[in-house]
Amino acid sequence: MYPVGFEDARVEDGELWLRGPIFTARVQARGPAWRIHVFLRPEDAEKDSYAIVAEEKRPVAFDGRVASAPGLPPLALSLAPFAFSFGVFHASGLFARELETWRGVERVTLDPLGVKNPVPPTEGLPLGGGFELWLEERPERRYFGLGERTGFLDKKGKRYTHWNTDDTDHEEGTDNLYQSQPFLMAVQGGEATGLILDETWRTVFDLARSDPEKTTLFTAGPTFDLYLLPGPRPRDVTLALAELTGRPPMPPLWALGYHQCRYSYPEEASVRAVVEAFKQHGIPLSAIWLDIDYMDGYRVFTFHPERFPDPGRLAEDLAREGIRLVAIVDPAVKKEAGYRVYEEGRALDAFIKTPRGDEVVGEVWPKPAVWPDFTQERVRRWWGKLHRFYTERGVAGIWNDMNDPSVFAVEGVDGELPGIGKTLPPGALHGKKTHLEVHNVYGQEMSRATFEGLLALAPERRPFVLTRSGFLGIQRYAWVWTGDNKSYWAHLEMSIPMLLNLGLSGVVFAGADIGGFSEDADPELLLRWTWLGAFYPFMRNHSAKTSRRQEPYAFGEPWTGKIAEAIRFRYRLLPYVYTLAEEASRTGAPLVRPLFWAFPEEEPAYQVYDQFLFGDALLVAPVTRPGQTHRSLYLPRGRWQHWWRGTIHEGPGWITVEAPLEEIPLFLRAGHAVPLTEPRAAKTAFFKPLYFRAFPEGQSHGAVYLDAGDGQVPGTRHEALVDAERRAFKVPRGARAFIQRPEGNVIWLD
Ligand code: MIG
Hints:
single chain, alpha+beta, eight-stranded parallel beta sheet, 13 helices, 18% helix, globular
């Protein structure tokens, strides 16, 4: 251990520079957060960020003890040559009573070798690289965020690595998955603070696991770049995170509908058959997805000439039914003379290199394969332009998979490196940077290339990109799905806290594969999962090659009809979902929210992992186990109306409700009204007809966002007000309003 410390403090250009015998730190008021960036090498002062987009710097003042900046709580700094600590104060009191200390670590256990001709470990670091910060722990403190995680809602008591990994076999105890969002929301006494460790190197957060009195944040990189987001409400932290890392662009309406996928629909006829079956059963469908078998020998930017002889025509026929086509694009490029993508990439010097200067050659679906270096702008531009191949053929969305990156084998590397997994060798070069440094942003930079390419090719459309891998800020470019889950009830259940914590980490548009990817779904599982999926921001059913078919009609009646109802409900709710999507794109507020996010003063709200709020108005308590006819659930303070029965329940407290197969326990919050429409795939988001369902007592407020459903022309958010007693309402022109009486009858107000 080597302590970090500073003795000299100086305000220069509105920021505070701290200098010590070895380390330097810049303290900035960056947008809504304090940034403390500690480094050793002068060149790291201007380290670039893949996560932070907020440019605004507020002027910092320092009185020798406390740094202050307009609009931010004061930051206390304690300076000594070999000891550094700090704390943030809230207006309401003390956040971090404890002092936090920087430590350099002696040696990183990672070995950045792994190609035949190794590169030296990170140069210039007398300590071997790496930083560790420790926070004094508090028993009452809880942690949320951390991106895509297995397990329950509260993350305290475990150790979390950020190292993007393709894990087809994850379960409750698994550590890192496909995404890295090195972000924490710490909450104690109802007050929240956010922490971002803006380092793309492997980072490890030990949340009071190894030592109950200590939480440590470790990075294997040569700098320690920390942001403190003051809160004090969970909501404030979320909005600050969005301001720092970017808000998601407004998605096209169709993306919020129901998606059908399978590995694979391998030829045109099977795509058409699925679409036909949806039609036959009267099930709305927004998109059908093409997995890797559409390609010619796994060559990206090709269609197999026999299996998909005329993809443009197929897309056109589907478009006439209001159904979009989405195609998978993996990063690996088949290394093959004469293959256009490889030849162009080679001519452009676009591929990742060994330290010797050769292409890193490996295997994934295509073999042999090479990998574009998406961290370079010219490579991203080239890759983006290649997507003309898809847009020209009417493909509406792009699905980025295997961009963790997942690699089956690399020439010259035997087996897997411990802690590295099946990916590119840590010493592989992206320009001057090693893979070790940029591994965690590889997928994000790929999706960025795709998003920017699609936008440039069709500026009149909103790009739709789905990615498996990403970093903090991925929401600027892509939606996320949670990778290879299984057709297990436990995975249905686990998807809830996973998506809640993803949402708190900025990734507000996400979904898990409905029905489960690998293993076999059964009809009850699929039915319950589809109901839950009706409230996922991203609603897609997907299954593996060897899994039993699990399209909504796969199990016949009575299941098909019941599953179809869940999908139709999503379409009924689309005006509300779309309005939430617009709010997310404007503020960063997640669509699915843990109870504590809205009710931070309620103790049970922190532990409830299998219920969530859908926007401000709805509370959802899915059934997560087979054979359940009832569901016990927690209602926060206030009055709630059972969506289906109309009964009114008073929170806070626990209740048990019936949960027949036909319905998901769903509650409407007093004071709120929800916009609804008819259950079909609407062409525009002007939603006709448009209804507001309001709480049956008192005044209810709601809103609806209306626009063309795609494109860049701004729409309008209309506020709505319904007064149940006076039977009066104010809603956008042409819309109607109703309430449901507790006895069950629907009353139209007019
Ligand atoms: O090696 O493209 O997570 O959704 O269907 C497996 C085939 C590659 C993994 C993805 C999954 C997709 C599958 N892919």
